[in-house]
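Dear support,

We are seeing what looks like truncated structure output for some complexes. This example has two components. We would appreciate it if you could run it in full and send us the complete token output so we can diff it against ours.
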Amino acid sequence: MSKTSKGKAPTGLTRRTVLSGAAAVGLAGVARAQTPAEIKVGLIVPLSGIYTRPGQVMKMGAEMGIEHINAQGGIKALGGAKLKLVVIDCGDTTEKAKNAAQRMVAQEPDLVAATGSYLSSFTLAVTEVTERAELPVLTLSYSDLLTDRGFKYIFQTAATASRQSELGLPTLMKLAENASGKRPKTVAMLMDNTATSVATAKALKEKLFAQEGLQLVVEEVWTPPLSDATPLIQKVRSAKPDLLLFMPNAVSDAKLGLEKISEFGLGQGKIPTVSFSITIAEPDMLQSVSPETVQGIMTIVANWGSKGHEALIAELKAKYKEPWMTQNVISTYGDMWLMKEALEKAGKADRNSVAQALRTMDAGPSKYYPGGQLKFDEKGRRVGAGVVIVQWQSGVPVTVYPPDLAQAEPFWPKKS
Amino acid sequence: MLPMRSLLPPLLFTLAYAGISLGVTNSYYQLILTLVPVWAVFGLSWNLLSGYTGLISFGHAAFFGIGAYATALGQIYFNISPWLLIPIAAMLGGIAGLLIGFPTFRLQGHYFALAMLAYPLAILYVFEWLGFQEVTLPIKRDAPIAYMQFADPHIYTLLGLALMLATIVLTQVIERSRFGMALLAIKQNEAAAEAAGINTLAWKLRAITLSGAIAAAIGGFYAQVLLVVTPASVFGMLVSAQALTVAMFGGVGTVWGPVIGSVILIPLAEILHAEAGARIPGIQGVIFGLAIVCVILLAPEGLFWKLRDLWRKRTASKTDVSDRPEAAATNVTTLKPASQQRTATGEVVLEVRSLSRSFGGLKAVQDVSFQLHKNEILGIIGPNGAGKTTLFNLLNGFLKPSQGEVLIDGRNMSGQRPHVICEAGIGRTFQVMRPFLRMSILDNVVVGAYVRARTEDQARQFAADAVARVGLSAVAHRVAGELSTKELRLMELARAVAGQPRILLLDETLAGLGHGEADEVVAVIQQLARDGMTIAIIEHTMQAMVRLVDRFLVLDHGAVITEGLPEVVTRDNRVIEAYLGKKWAGHAAN
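Here is the complete output from our reference environment:
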């Protein structure tokens, strides 16, 4: 073999040299890890390409988390060892995410845990790698598939998509009944065909609408990007449903739809509008639509900056100029604390011990995720994970449900 | 089939690559080493269709994705092993190629490229609609090897390499065969290829079927490596673009192009992603894009050709001194005196009966009838726009006549496809030359020989004969790019002759030649006629024609105005009037 490889000597040799150099660096890393002055945790999120923005926001949450943990004395069980964040860009395609994950496990052998990767497709690819490398990964992605593969090293902190609709819709119905005095009877559903929307819609159509006595009068699906919302909204206007489920996953789609709703005179709660993703409550929304257009619109999300997080929200505002705290920030912030908790429990800076600690953890009510406890079932789903309902009120999406987290009273727009 | 000399480089390359791969322990570098052959094979599959035929496909992701999804879904729903699924995927890809190719090959150039773009995008939405937004391959903990799941990442690289070696060898075999020649001929000039007896549609369909099969197979393997399949990751624009990028960067129309492109670009993109991207996220895309732009500007046909040209130039300048004089000396064809002893027999080999063709309101050819006798040289003349070339196009099948018949040996052949007419014994040359500039004269001529040749050797033999008949034997191994106009004209003639036609249609063969040069070509044509060829020739330059032809057919405004012996026709008032206008007709009469 060595004889034949001479044919390709120039590039081959240089590459090999580079590789052995890299391997040496890796070995040095292992040697250092034995007396952990610092413990490395990973953040693998999109920092280039079209999903950069959510990735950046997640990074803010992670940085704040690390800073707070270290300021409060680091990991006490490990002699006050400090946490160190390793940030890895997972790019904007599934292949890049997989490559990045491979790089993470190969180049950072002393990582004890990681969190990521925003889009569930990326998290799927990343966890295929981390599972084989036995690196525990926390995720805020909520595709059911993530924790349906029998994996042992993935921990889903958010309620899964189908669970979110199961929890969200009945709550929403109650909210409507309390506020307006009558239960909605008909519903229109406008959705894009991304994986999350499809999963949510499936649960709604197969079970929940019937369970809640709702009749589906309009159902329209589009493929992002939405080019014109007129035909969709026209159908809604003529059907006059009691409730409109509007489920975009791109800010531009959300903007087009909401503007059209407003233009057709259905805005400001003429038809109560509800979404199922954080897109509609992203700070970017205000760059393209006015606060009046979004007033009263609600969305059911897996997590949100809520009551009890005031200091955090203020710090986020001051430090990163973010107007409010989305799921991406608070969940990633919470992930850092969850990793700390696991490290304290494991008492060892070792990925398998951390994974085991996460599996057996029972740390009571969760501070940074809504509902339930810091405890995972055998699939890796957080026990009792709940949802948050957020409503646009005077240009800010505020938590209105559950009551213990609510920053404001919900208002149910009354039909005039 | 393949000489050892050409088998050795890919074999050595593969072994060297495998050696490097086995020396790499870092799993991340190993993954990159696995992806290089994956994208190289995908680039090769693209190259097989687009590189050789010149029909650019922007939609190779269609095949790739079909393969990936077949492999993933087959495991999930039917529990079939990928060892079996990848061949099945290849079959599906081949079928998809056939189904896509059949309607799409009606389009040409940019229209073909755009139509191809649409297929993967359309299929992408179908898969989304079917609910396959995210598909993951199930982990088989009890039988990992039966399901192509290896704990040791080296094995993926070795499998990828095996696929790459197989594809390289397959491509090389094709490149050297009638198949590859046919595809190259299509790339240069589809019409000319068809006229040279190549059934272009059939070869293109074979190419896209094979290309689709390879793309689907590697797509299936890719799914196995990536473990997650989403519509965007296998049907997306970026996937189709990847095939183009590696092939165009490395070199189009050569087996090494996609391999070079992949070996450089895939690791480069990853290194940039890992190193630069960690500091300034997003910068990797900018650098990568700029690198590609620079290389394309410096080496528009890809690195391989640029390097080869540079290397050739260096070696050529060394051997130049000894090479040139010899070539110049033997290049001159001895001009034999025109002989009139050749006797045109009375036997009619081609008969045209009231042939007409109109384009909208324009009657390009109207009611033309004439006979071509065995062994005669018929000159077809007429002013610009008289319908001469249109007449040829009707004769060899490029155009279908609106009316009338073309009888070859008494059989009505009007409306047949050009390659069928070529098989019937009609060869033709073109006004505008389209030689394969990088190929030798002999290789250029071989393309024309396949219509008669049964075997590769016979085709070579026919080609060598044809080259000898036009007097180019001495320079037969020079590349066409170095030839003069006269030599190119003779080469075109040889290409038509190589198909062993009985009738030759020559379209302005003397155009653009100097005085002496025209005489040399005329001598060759006369020799062909003496050897028993029947020839119809279109020409503007009367002088050479008068000495060459037995009989003239004069066209004006699409119709025959007169027909007869040269000396009679050149004095005919109607002919002078057609060429020079009424005023001169009066002069000539005086």
